[in-house]
Amino acid sequence: MKKLIGYKVVCFLLIAISVSCNKDKIGDFDPVDGNPFTGDCTDTVFYSTIVQPIIMNNCTVAGCHNNLQVAGGFNFESYESVSANANLILNVIQHNSGFGAMPLGASQLNSSLIQDIECWINQGQMNN
Question: pTM for this structure?
Answer without folding.
Answer: 0.69
